[in-house]
Each structure stands twice: as C-alpha cells, then as structure tokens.
Amino acid sequence: MAERAVRTMSCELPPEVLEYLELVESGPWRVCEEQAALAKLVRRCFEMEDIFVDREQLAGYLRLEKYFPFRLFPWEKFLTALWDCTYWRETGLPRWPQVFAMLGRGAGKDGYIAYSSMCSVSPFCETARYDVDICANLEEQAMRPLLDLVENLESPAHAQKLGRHFYHTKQVVQGRKNRGSVRGRTNSPRSRDGMRTGKAIFNEIHQYESYSNITVFRTGQGKVAHPRVGYFSSNGNVSDGPLDDLLERSRRILFEDEPDKGFLPFICRLKTKEQVRDPDNWYMANPSLQYSPSLQHETQKEYEEWLENPEQNPDFLTKRMGLRSQAAEIAVTDYDKVKATNRPLPDLLGWCCTVGVDYAELSDWAAVNLHFRRGDERFDINHAWVCTQSKTLHRVRAPWRDWAGRGDITVVEDVSIHPDLLAGWVLRQAGQYHIAGLAMDNFRWTLVSQSFQQIGFDPADRKNVKLVRPNDIMKVEPVIQDCFDRELFTWGNVPHLRWAVQNTKRVRSSRKIGVDTGNFIYAKIEAKSRKTDPFMALVSSMVIEPLLGTGGAPLANVPAAIVV
C-alpha cells in the first residue's frame, strides 16, 4: 500500500465520483434527501480529509465493465470508486470499508454485486486471497450474482480471454493471480476457522431478522487485509431488524453529523405516499430508472396495478419506491420537522415551566423534560438517564455514550436508576426556573413518589402533580402535532430527544374494538431497542401546559413551586 500512496498522491475527485455528484446536485432528475445529504458528505470528506483515490486500481476495475452485458450506471461507478478504491493516505486503509445501498427494485443490485465481486478477485486487486462471500437468506439471492458472473465468464465472446485470469465452476469463481474466490452463502457455516473473507456482501438485508448470520461472516474477517462489507437491499417490512438499524445509522450520519467511521450510506427512496403519484419522483427511489425504458414501462405497469388494488400490491410501495406502506401512518411527524427543532434556545433563566417525567422501568431508561412557552413558541430542556445494567441496552444502536459525553444523558452504573437522581436534577433546575407543576404517568408515580415528595411534589397535599392517563394524551396530541407542523418547537441540539421522537408512533385509540374515535395516543415502534422516554417526558410536560398560560417574558423574582 505504501507504493500505491506514492504513485497516486491526488486528493481530487475522480471523474466517476464528480459525475454522480453533479447529477445529484443539479441533474435533470429528482433525487431524495438522503442522496443530497450524501453528496455534501462526500464533498466535505474530500475537502477536509487526507484521502485519495487509487486511479490505477479504479481504471483497472472499470475495464472489467466490457465483459458484462450491461454498462455501469453513474451510481455504480460512484460506489466502486468510494468503496473499493478510496484510501486514507497515512495508513493505506480503505476510507469507506462499509457500504449500505438501499435502492428500488430493478436498479441492478445483483448485477452490481456480480461486477464488484469480479473486481475483488481480478488481477487488479492487489490483496492476495481476497475471498468474496455473497450472503442471503434465500439460495437464489445468494447464488444469482455468482451465476451472473459465471455466465459472463462462459460467454463465447470472452471465455478464452477471461479463462486466463479466472477459474470457475457453478459454485465458485476464483482469480488465478490473487487466488481470491467468490461463493454464494445461504446459511452460517458451522465453523469459521477456515474462512478468509475479504469482502462480505449481504444481499436483500431486509429479510434478515437478526444478526446471527451477519455476525458469522463479519467475525470471519480480519485474516485478509482491507476487509470490506456491503449491505444491498430494497426496502422491506421486517421491523427492528438489521435493515432498520442500518437506516437509523444512515440517518444519524447524513442528518445529525454523526461521524461515519467508514460507513457509506447510499439510500434512494421516496418520502411520502403522496410523492408516488408524480412519476417524476420515481427517480428518487431508483437511480437506474432514467437509463432503462423497459424498467420505466414495468414500473408504470405496477403503479397502475397498485392504484387499482393497493392492498393486493403492497410491494410496489415497499420494493419499487422504498416506502413502507405503513410508515406515513405511524410516524409522529416528518423528520424535517424534527430537525427544525434544532435551533438555539433563548435565555430561559427565571421563566415559568412545567416538568414531565417518564420511564418504563428504572432499570432501563428515564427522562425529565422542562417545558416553556412564549405565545405559540415552545421551548424544551430534556435530560435522560440510562442504566448500564439494562437487559436490552445491547440492542440500542444509538450512540448513547457520545450523548453522555455531551452532557445530554447521565450514565448510571448501577442495577437501576434511583429516583433521587431524577428528583435531584429537578431540584437543581428549580434554582433557575419557576416550576409550575409536574406530570407523569399515573401508573409510574408510586415508585418515585417518596423522592419527589421530599422536594415538595405531592398530588394529594400540594396539588402540583398531575398523574397522566391516556385520555390526557389524546387531548394534547393535536397540540403537539400542530407544534411540529408549524415548527413551533425549539429544543437546541439535543440528539437523544430527536431520536426518541423517531422511535415513537401514533396509534388510534378506540373506546371499543372496531370504533375509531379519531383520537391518537403514542406508543413505541419497538419496545426493546427504540426508547421513547425523552419524548414521552415532553408529552407529559405538555399535558399541564395550561399552567403556563401564554408564557411570555421571564418571570422575575418568583419563588420556585417546590421546596425541600
């Protein structure tokens, strides 16, 4: 790798990367917000980081294109340059060893996997014995890219020439020079001892319900230099599986400035069901659509079938458009509205506020929210606690340790979060703000009552505690939705609160089965890995928002509502 760094010392964007960036930024076709954010990320990395593209390696890989019955689309050249040919100058290690590509059906994922696999075992890959494992839950999905590659090797036009560089059977393709092999894998091998995986490719990751197979192949890496991982998929409906984790990590990288740590998120999808009705939006879900008239025709045909009978054709939304059919119905709000809360808070010292407390179990997570109002504007200060001995903490993929380093959450190294920690935090805030009242779930009060009674909160005696019931949330939910829709919330840069909103869904509440009241309550999208406590603390604090009136100017010289 030292030789490669010497001979190729350019940090400029190669044409293959620049072409796609310009298509995203000012091309004739619409792109989704994830692609726009990715373009900004890539440009920023090349401007600020000491990285380079190995032009000779990339040129060699691109020469292999002529042996396939298709031409590479701009997005495929873009991924090849970044995933396979971009390196850190100091260490020579790949800059983006992991790529996650979620695209609409028909984009050419299998063909690209076959091409990328061929690159990795070709003479242009300098790493010896760079094995490629193509993994999937179904045999056809694991073997299809391999069989496509075999078909190309057996093509009469190329068989003699390619035979000098590749050996193949129906089960394996091997590079004669670097000795790397390509195989399709459908199940975890019984032993990892003999595996030397250089590139692990997981096809149709949306079908994976757990990490068991993924872990086997990822753990098998490390014996070969420059290990790489690729996750390729259309969207799917398996909730809380690896796909959801990949999407969540991608969102944090693209929109919350989380360091990518070598993870390249390439996502193409629509955002809402309404966008489906404009064919010009279909390009947002499929970057190959504009180059394939037959794909356009097939997409139009499926669209008409979906219009005629949506219930019998749900895959059109999910597979073709990257939009889960239920996503728009369960989300609290669009993520753009959540991002809009990231504005600096005004000086709230001395203002009147309400307090909301929420936790499911004190051995898991807990949160407290201070809620302020000035006219229609709402301001919130949110803090959370996480118990390190929580049985489900290992399932949380969010960077909660980074949040703790920022001071947004407190890590509790104990079997549970003692209620005194919550009460103590509220007491300290009472030295800066006038607390008009406290609200929390009716069924959770008993466990924390003693700690809060010691600082002056007692629903029986002082009447300054509201024990929240589902009916109270139904009443405040329209207010919360209006605040999101009109961008009236200001929270500052509080990623754990934005994360909690994304973990929450709106659920219709019925007085009895089959009767829709038109009211909503909030629920967790998934109970074990997607915590909602910070957002639900905000909800509780808004239940008693009428105590604030219209808010307004800071309240000077007003004693706190709680006493020791």
3D structure, described in words:
There is one protein chain. The chain is α/β, with parallel strands linked by helices. Helix content is 36%, strand content 19%. The protein has 20 helices and 19 strands. The chain has an 8-stranded mixed sheet, sandwiched between helices. Helix 16 packs across helix 17. The longest helix is centred in the first third of the chain and has 16 residues. The chain is elongated, with a radius of gyration of 27 Å. The N and C termini lie far apart (66 Å).
The first-to-last residue Cα distance is 66 Å
What is the overall number of helices? 20
Mean pLDDT: 87
Q: Assign a percent range to the helix content.
A: 25-40%
Strand tally, please? 19
Largest sheet: 8 strands, mixed
Please state how the strands of the largest beta sheet are arranged side by side: 5-6-7-4-8-9-3-10
Overall 3D form = elongated
Which class do the helix and strand fractions yield?
alpha/beta
Strand content: 15-25%
Keywords:
564 residues, eight-stranded mixed beta sheet, alpha/beta, elongated, disordered N terminus, disordered C terminus
